[in-house]
């Protein structure tokens, strides 16, 4: 990793921290997608807390604060915690959330007790073990980042190689089992990958905040795409970007790196939740506003067509009285229709243009088709199950099915 770190236009320490945070974000983002889609995000939290006693036991056994041995201890403790969660779920009546809570609280309490015990000894090497609780990215060394990069590369390679079996197991484990895939082995493998991500993240964000690094990039990517093949690299990219941005921001503000990275991730998630195309709150609000405006305009168009057929073309007050709409809403809809060239005014009275009359007939036909669908839709023999669009049923079903539906509504034979 030395040449890559040297290429960064940053002081050496900052470059090491930024590289380590990027590797963590990339790995946690990809692995986090698997956890989020399995609805097992709390398992990541439990594994992060389970790793703490592993760090303490590794230090007690070796007597040295060697990063490699401590991370091996953390990995073994995480795997033990994962196996305990699965064992509790499958051998008792305890549900998964309760099993996760038991393992999380038990292992975390054991880790706190062991670290407190180590702190009371005379071993001078014990200083800094509590950093695995809250993280201390500033203490990362180049060799740590190299180990992280190797673990991340191996994990991402496994995900790429086993992509199809993992995808099948994620979305339809019953089908995966029926075609001969080792579902339990694949689920255990996904949990093991989660353990690897936790081990990489302990030094940077700590056991407490590690679950955020697993969840945040996956949630953001999930808002932006529904395809797993796109979601995995997108979550990895978001995680890496969040890690780098958070580490640089913490350096500039002289604040703890782990919490700042998590806060940057939270800001990204909030931004995506608000602005994501087709799913964001702002996008949905704008679409709802457009739909309401369209329904208002279509309703006024039909009211105007009905009024013209019932008598002379109405004035604006007459149309408001006949339709029961507020004057403000009516003026807004009439303005939209006039700008679209669908109506004309003559001596204070409102006339439909040729295109306006055609538009009104189109709206009436769509309404009739929808009413017919609600009453006779079950009688249609469609090639596949589909969810029709109420705003354009003919386009959803096709001309042949729409004509058949009109025949059924008119009382024709099946």
Describe the structure.
The protein has 414 residues and is an all-alpha fold. The protein is 76% helix and 2% strand. The protein has helices at 2-7, 12-37, 41-62, 67-91, 96-119, 131-134, 142-161, 163-171, 173-178, 183-202, 206-224, 228-253, 257-275, 281-310, 316-323, 327-339, 354-376, 393-397, 399-409; strands spanning 343-346, 349-352. Strands 1-2 form a two-stranded antiparallel sheet. Helix 4 (67-91) packs antiparallel against helix 5 (96-119).
Report the uncertain regions: none
What is the rounded distance between the termini?
A: 73 Å
Instruction: Specify the number of helices.
Output: 19
Alpha-carbon Rg, integer: 31 Å
Estimate the global geometry from the Cα principal axes.
Answer: elongated
In short:
With 414 residues, the protein is mostly helical. It contains 19 helices and two strands. The chain has helices at residues 2-7, 12-37, 41-62, 67-91, 96-119, 131-134, 142-161, 163-171, 173-178, 183-202, 206-224, 228-253, 257-275, 281-310, 316-323, 327-339, 354-376, 393-397, 399-409, and strands at 343-346, 349-352.
Key features of this structure:
mainly alpha
Write the layout of secondary structure elements.
Elements: H1 2-7, H2 12-37, H3 41-62, H4 67-91, H5 96-119, H6 131-134, H7 142-161, H8 163-171, H9 173-178, H10 183-202, H11 206-224, H12 228-253, H13 257-275, H14 281-310, H15 316-323, H16 327-339, E1 343-346, E2 349-352, H17 354-376, H18 393-397, H19 399-409
Antiparallel strand pairs: 1-2
